[in-house]
Write a sequence for this structure.
């Protein structure tokens, strides 16, 4: 299947030439095509949802032939699983970059997550659309998001244990329960920001969610910075 892109108004880099005009290798062209297809899939899912996004439309939106998705990924299922993992990457990077004591790690996570949704609503909408599509028991995306959510909960549990060790989080707080509650609070608040952004004040939502974390988990004598 030819992978030469059709003429398009996209500003996507020429798949054949590098910026210094030297020819790209076959592997570089393949990697560029796959990345373009993944980005197009996320854009379409953010606008239309999973069910209304076809592999043919993804190929055209990326500036390629209608059949190139199957050439590179084999099926819509594989494409969406890859797109889902790509949509999760920035959240993981945000969480991994947090610093502070245990309580402040949780507070920073709350603000960073909701700020990301406000800053990059299209990326967040693609993530939420695919997460929602993972809810049915036989969904092709169920395993991808179950693994991702489990990883987020483990990270929150770790933050709680760090806080209990450094004296900033109550010792009677149950890490797994905190992880489930905080994940649910962020997911629910984030969904509201995307469905009806005009009805939710981002800064107010961030502030209240932070207060919930502090008031529910702060060890006695812990003061806010």
């Amino acid at each position: 299947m030819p992978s030469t892109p059709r003429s398009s108004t996209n500003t996507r880099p020429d798949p054949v030439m590098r910026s210094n005009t030297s020819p790209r290798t076959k592997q570089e062209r393949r990697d560029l095509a796959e990345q373009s297809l993944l980005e197009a899939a996320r854009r379409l899912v953010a606008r239309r949802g999973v069910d209304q996004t076809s592999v043919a439309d993804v190929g055209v939106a990326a500036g390629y032939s209608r059949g190139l998705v199957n050439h590179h990924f084999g099926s819509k299922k594989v494409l969406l699983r890859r797109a889902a993992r790509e949509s999760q990457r920035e959240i993981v990077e945000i969480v991994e970059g947090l610093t502070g004591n245990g309580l402040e790690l949780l507070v920073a996570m709350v603000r960073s997550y909701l700020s990301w949704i406000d800053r990059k609503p299209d990326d967040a909408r693609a993530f939420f659309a695919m997460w929602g599509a993972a809810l049915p028991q036989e969904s092709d995306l169920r395993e991808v998001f179950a693994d991702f959510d489990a990883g987020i909960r483990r990270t929150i549990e770790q933050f709680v244990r760090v806080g209990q060790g450094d004296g900033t989080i109550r010792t009677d707080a149950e890490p797994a329960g905190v992880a489930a509650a905080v994940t649910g609070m962020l997911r629910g608040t984030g969904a509201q920001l995307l469905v009806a952004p005009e009805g939710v004040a981002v800064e107010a939502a961030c502030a209240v969610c932070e207060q919930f974390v502090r008031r529910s988990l702060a060890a006695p004598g812990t003061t806010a910075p």
The radius of gyration is 21 Å. Residues 142-166 form the longest helix (25 residues). The mean pLDDT is 88.
